[in-house]
């Protein structure tokens, strides 16, 4: 919020308002977690990092004409602050 980004909340676990995220979670569960046991957090992180690379850079997606998401990404031209200003709270807190 301190970067000027507007926050838009939607209902949790509601595919109609969270469709893209819910669809990604379904793919992640089906492609990463089915039939395996991740023994610790570093192993889980490595597994998810690898899956994310494949999901975004190698795996075609039907919803975008069998392209990979990375081919559709463009970075923002907006510059963001490297260091955020300190939030000051009133003395009544």
TrEMBL record:
InterPro entries: Integrase_cat-core, RNaseH-like_sf, RNaseH_sf. GO terms for biological process: DNA integration. PROSITE patterns: INTEGRASE (PS50994). Residues 1-23 are annotated as: Disordered. Residues 1-77 form the Integrase catalytic domain. GO terms for molecular function: nucleic acid binding. This is Transposase.
């Amino acid at each position: 919020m301190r970067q000027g980004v507007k926050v838009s909340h939607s209902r949790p676990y509601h595919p109609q308002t969270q469709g893209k995220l819910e669809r990604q979670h379904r793919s992640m569960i089906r492609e990463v977690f089915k039939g395996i046991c991740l023994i610790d957090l570093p192993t889980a992180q490595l597994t998810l990092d690898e899956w994310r690379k494949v999901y975004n850079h190698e795996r075609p997606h039907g919803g975008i004409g069998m392209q990979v998401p990375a081919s559709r990404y463009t970075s923002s031209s907006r510059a963001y602050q490297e260091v955020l200003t300190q939030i000051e709270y009133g003395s009544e807190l």
